[in-house]
Amino acid sequence: MPGFALRSVYAAILLSAVLSLHSVSAAGPEPYDPWPGLVQDIFDSRAMDDGSNLIALEMPTRAEDAAIVPVTLRLKLTSDARSRVVSITLVIDQNPAPMAAKFKLGADANVSEISTRVRINNYTNVHAVAETSDGKLHVVQTYVKASGGCSAPAAKNAEEAKNRLGQMRYRQFARPQNEGSSSTREAQVMVGHPNNSGLQMDQVSQLYIPALYVDRLQLWQDDSPVLSVEGGISISEDPNIRFTYVSNGAKTFRAEAKDTDGHQFSHEWKVDGSGM
Amino acid sequence: MTSRLAMHAALIMLAMLASAHAQQQTLAIGEVAPGVFMHQGRIALMSSDNDGAIANIGVVIGEQAVAVIDTGGSVREGRQLLAAIRAHTDKPIRYVINTHGHPDHMFGNAAFVAEGTEFVGHVRLPQALAVRGQYYVDAFRRSMGDALIDDVRIVPPTRLVDGELVLDLGGRTLVVKAWPTAHSDSDVTVFDTVTKTLFAGDLVFLRHIPVLDGSIQAWLKLLDDLAALPANRVVPGHGPVSAWPQALAAERRYLETLASDIRSDVTDGRPIAAAAEHAAAAERDKWELFDDYNARNATAAYSQFEWE
Questions:
Q1: Cβ pair A204:B103 closer than 8 A
Q2: Are B179 and B18 in contact (CB under 8 A)?
Q3: Which site among A21, A23, A30, A64 would you substitute to test the B interface, given the most B Cβ atoms closer than 10 Å to its Cβ?
């Protein structure tokens, strides 16, 4: 009899624990902070210092469209800095795949700005971690509210996305005349690709829709690397990257992309030497 | 005299008890044409305060059966809709038609799951619900709360529409038509041939700013085909019942303004974030919820015009 009473007390405790756990995960604004774990997993627990003198991370305070949230990374590095930024890793803490992208900056390209678009699944911190050539890590962060309404981090027009698979576009933008040196260029590369996350189950077949996304994009001016991107499913459909770099006088611009099915896409364009 | 008064008082008590018991048990529906009813949703975002009841809902009663067009933004709203229908008729609900897969139109589906009830939707709706359904349930927990969301089940269609499907309610037929990707990738309209009432789902917005979750180019292209439907009136997805096809004018103007602004942003190389802030500014005073949706529409449109 006492044993029975004890059991029911345990059961009550367990039940209340389950209930409180449920309500925390369900209704709590931030169930837990995944960042310490992400530092361990992605950055091998390396020390990071405040990167706000080095880079700026710009995002809207609210994800208007959950599937297409603009992100801009701006380098503040002045020319007298001793060490240059070699890579920037973008982490969306609360996304199913938090590591959104790692940008490696070409040694001679002087990339000063990178914009892309990401999916935002939830209210989340977003971190950008810059690694400098002295091996140090520098972090900045911002907070983005999830989109409201019927917006979802999913395809709007899956058929059209499929039809665009593998198409590539390059565009060079006009620069304001008094901004940067005359060899500074602003350009954009777009890759048509559904970038499927593979996290959703088809309710008819009960099978997971396989993930298919661009995991690498490399950009060159002639044979000199400008930028390479290791991407994941947090990058929006039709990966789109807009960037500012310094021309080495190259006559061509080349992009190569690879997806998780092993498809390779590449394209080469003539560069407008004038800078427009 | 006293006994009548007592009976009256008892009846009032009973009614009060009933309504307290079920927190307003029936949804307000009004007859817009013989046998055709609608609930007009509030122009608002879904929240715990409004039970998610922001979308319009249609009910068509035939000689033998009933069709429900969309089920509302929560199972609570769905149940109140069911009670409202039962106050008008005992005929079986043979069809529940989901005009598309957005939560304000289908979170009430679970209230209608019953033997003999078919769920009707666009041929692409199962896929849309597969990739978005769980996300919606999780995302709306924040604004709607556990009490409303715990009951929600994603109920996919059991009967798919590719092209047109005619449903017989006895003495009247409904034509369900599947459209190409426009407002969303799984929009259907429902046309009652007897009263020439068109249930347009979210292919038509009035007062509530149009919301783009499909293709702006295709939506604009589709407006002429939509206008050609031989309807007398439209029940839009959001906003008041209106004369057809005049009801399309405001939406067309908004979409054309947005398209033209975004096209020049893309041509001029203005970045997507800047475009989202300024596009269609001329429309701000003409719509409710403009600031909740316009930047999002602009973002979506921009990413489409870039590929033109």
A1: no
A2: no
A3: A64
Name the CATH topology of B20-244.
Metallo-beta-lactamase; Chain A (3.60.15)
| Bridge partners, residue B68, by sequence | B59, B96
Q: Which of A168-172, A196-200, A214-218, B218-222 has the lowest mean pLDDT?
A: A196-200
Pairing of strands A264-270, A252-259: antiparallel
Question: Taking CB atoms and an 8 Å cutoff, what residues of chain B touch A240?
Answer: 303, 306
Q: All domains of chain A, ordered by start, with CATH?
A: 29-270 (2.60.40.2470)
Average pLDDT of the residues in A242-251: 95
The residue type at A191: V
Question: Which pLDDT tens digit goes with each residue over B30-55?
Answer: 999 999 999 999 999 999 999 999 99
What length is written for chain B? 308
Reading the block at residue B148, the tokens are 């409303």
Structure tokens belonging to residue A181: 């040196």
Considering only CB atoms, B214 lies closest to which of A121, A151, A156, namely A156
Q: Give burial (CB, 10 Å; 0-12/13-18/19+) of A87.
A: middle
What does chain A come to in residues?
276
**Residue B282, SS3?**
helix
- Give the max Cα distance, chain A: 91
Q: Give the whole-angstrom CA distance, residue B243 versus residue B250.
A: 13
* Model ipTM over 0.85: yes
Helix, strand or coil, per DSSP, at residue B68? strand
Nearest residue in chain A measured CA to CA from B135? A152
Residues of A with Cβ-Cβ distance to B181 under 8 angstroms: 156-157, 159-160
Which tokens sit at B303?
């990413």
- Contact predicate A221/A110, CB 8 Å: no
Nearest residue of B to residue A202 by CA position?
B130
Distance CA B163, CA A126 (A): 44
Closest chain B residue to A116, measured at CA: B272
Give the pLDDT of residue A174: 84
Q: Rounded CA gap, A20 and A14, in Å?
A: 10
pLDDT score at A154: 87
Domain ranges of chain B: 20-244
Answer whether A150 sits within 8 Å of B104, measured CB to CB.
Answer: yes
Residue B52 CB contacts under 8 Å (≥ 6 apart), including other chains = B46, B72, B73, B74, B77, B103, B104, B107, B140, B144, B148
C-alpha span between B181 and B212 (Å, rounded) = 10
Chain B within 8 Å of A180 (Cβ-Cβ)? no
The three-point CA angle B43-B47-B52 to 5° equals 65
| pLDDT winner (highest mean) among A115-129, A185-199, B18-32 | A115-129
